[in-house]
Amino acid sequence: MKTRRTYEQLRSARWMVPDDQRSFGHRSRTMQMGYDPADWEGRPIIAILNTWSDAQPCHMHFKDRVEWVKRGVLQAGGFPMELPALSLSENFVKPTTMLYRNMLAMESEELLRSHPIDGAVLMGGCDKTTPGLVMGALSMGLPFIYLPAGPMLRGNWAGRHLGSGTDGFKFWDERRAGTISKEEWQGIEGGIARSYGHCMTMGTASTMTAIAEAMGLTLPGASSIPAADAGHQRMSTQCGRRIVDMVWEDLTPDMIVTAAAVENAVTVAMATGCSTNAIIHLIAMARRAGIALELDDLDRIGRKTPVIANIRPSGATYLMEDFYYAGGLRALMKQLGDKLNSSAITVTGKPLTEGLDLVKVWNDDVIRPLSNPVYHEGSLAVLKGNLSPDGAVIKPAACDPKFHRHKGPALVADSYAELKTIIDDPDYPMTPETVLVLRNAGPQGGPGMPEWGMIPMPKALLKRGLRDMVRLSDARMSGTSFGACVLHVAPESYVGGPLALLKTGDIVELDIPNRSLNMLVPDEELALRRQSWKPPAPRYGRGYGFLFSKHIEQADKGCDFDFLKTEFGPQVDEPAIN
Ligand code: FES
């Protein structure tokens, strides 16, 4: 426990207190905005990093919710300062938000560093905003609290509950197979996203906000509250109140994000049936906190943690609204019992596990007991072999079990354009055993590792009534996706990973129980192919893309920039220069 801070010890006091010309400027410009000294004197300045924008439907309500946060900050005696940050809409940003996650992380860190900030509330939820905001704030090291956007309401069409992403993919396959009409498709379009909030399947957004909560970075229960529930306003105000106390207590993130907290986050992620994207973000977040999380750690924890959240896409029926009504993430944590490490604390300053004995599970079909899981192991499996020496991932719970052991001939596309000609040709020669491969879609090749990994089912198989096949790529896939998709092959093909050597017709062997992924090609043949492989031309000559391609790490390292590693030590926290 640290000693309580005094006002003079706060960062903001360096800007606001000195009797000199520079501080005169800070004070007079604050007064220019209509405040008087009573508004800031003796009060911590709380940044509210708001990822609202007109291009971000998942965060539409942040324009309103930020006012509730400010209300809480003021109630607790702080001075709120809203700072806009990159909104990273999963739908609108091309080629992929993953290209910009690290940009948001850098922006968050530098916004906090460069302004007179003592603590922060981070407002995010849409996929990359959670890791982006958290990574930056962890590197900055000031007290912070994460405010999740909350899931949107269940989708509805023709009396059916629709799930974000999942049903879009599912019904698009039906549309391509000709089993639903244009009018029905339009009905789905209008009903699948009915309110503000992030995707309401257990996709990347729901997974990442659950991870933030399990890491101790939110108020208890915050990640499950639907965006449209009045509880979300109340939670927003509570965040504002709590962060002010966290500043006085000097409750910095290094006290919260410990090895125990990271282990809890992985355990909870596995039990939720988490998005494959979670692996990359978890590794990146943990490493920003100085904890060297590896793919093998995720696989180890996954093997002993069953999926108990019966939420689509791992489950068949329920969505995040049902999860909330069933008790939410706290109820899931209760079901996990002693799988959680009780030494980890949260932004409350208390153990994550405190109070779980009083939590009720209201529907144990939605949040299952460990004795009746949705899937007997965790959500994700890590595969290694001569195709993926540094690892690849698959979501066994979301694919047909008949593919858990599979051998078939590769059909390789070098680009998405080439892939499209294959999948859109109803007569393209292939069999149900074919392994459809997309390469040059990794961190550098994509660029930015787009969510192309749930390769649409080829028309040639759809017309035969098939809805799943083994697909393989160095891309990611949306957390709302499903199917026998092997992803994140590392190293990626664009930088010369073994995937670059695979040829159409080579036999690929997938063995999930044994965690292996191999091409059955002799080593001597691979050595010959290696000799004739030539690196593709660089994609960027300038700009952010250039910086990205020079410094992005591979998927198994979390796709962070190499120069942002914690090993390089903390950046100097410059005082206000006078
Ligand atoms: Fe924002 Fe899915 S599009 S969370």
What is the gist of this entry?
It comes from Rhizobium gallicum bv. gallicum R602sp. By secondary structure, the chain is of the alpha/beta class.
In the CATH scheme, the class of the largest domain would be Alpha Beta
Radius of gyration: 24 Å
Counting structural domains, the number is: 3
What is the number of helices? Answer: 20
> Can you give the helix content as a percent range?
25-40%
Structural class: alpha/beta
Span of the ends, CA to CA: 33 Å
Helices, strands, pairings?
Elements lengths: L10 H6 L4 H12 L4 H4 L4 E6 L11 H14 L3 E6 L16 H14 L4 E6 L4 H12 L3 E5 L6 E3 L2 E3 L3 H12 L4 H10 L12 H11 L15 H20 L3 H4 L2 H14 L4 H12 L6 H9 L16 H6 L2 H9 L44 E3 L8 E3 L10 E9 L2 H8 L11 E4 L20 H4 L8 E3 L11 E2 L20 E5 L4 E4 L3 H10 L10 H9 L27
Parallel strand pairs: 1-2, 1-3, 3-4, 9-10, 10-11, 11-12
Antiparallel strand pairs: 5-6, 7-8, 9-13, 13-14
The protein binds FE2/S2 (inorganic) cluster.
Question: Could you please describe the fold and organization of this structure?
Answer:
- The chain has helices at residues 11-16, 21-32, 37-40, 62-75, 101-114, 129-140, 166-177, 182-191, 204-214, 230-249, 253-256, 259-272, 277-288, 295-303, 320-325, 328-336, 416-423, 459-462, 523-532, 543-551, and strands at 45-50, 79-84, 119-124, 144-148, 155-157, 160-162, 381-383, 392-394, 405-413, 435-438, 471-473, 485-486, 507-511, 516-519.
- The chain has 578 residues and is an alpha/beta fold.
- The protein folds into 3 domains: 7-153 and 196-258 and 272-291, Response regulator (Rossmann fold, 3-Layer(aba) Sandwich); 156-191, no CATH class; 381-532, IlvD/EDD C-terminal domain-like (Glucose Oxidase, domain 1, 3-Layer(bba) Sandwich).
- The strands form 4 sheets. The chain has a 6-stranded mixed beta sheet with strand order 12-11-10-9-13-14. It has a 4-stranded parallel beta sheet with strand order 2-1-3-4, with helices on both faces. It has a two-stranded antiparallel ribbon with strand order 5-6.
- α4 packs across α10.
- The longest helix has 20 residues, at 230-249.
- The protein is globular and about 75 Å long.
- The site of FE2/S2 (inorganic) cluster (FES) has 9 residues, from loops.
- FE2/S2 (inorganic) cluster is lined by residues 58, 90-91, 126-127, 164, 198-199, 205.
- Belongs to the IlvD/Edd family.
- It holds the Pfam family ILV_EDD_C.
- Keywords: Iron, Iron-sulfur, Lyase, Metal-binding, Plasmid.
- This is Dihydroxy-acid dehydratase 4.
- Residues 43-354 form the Dihydroxy-acid/6-phosphogluconate dehydratase N-terminal domain.
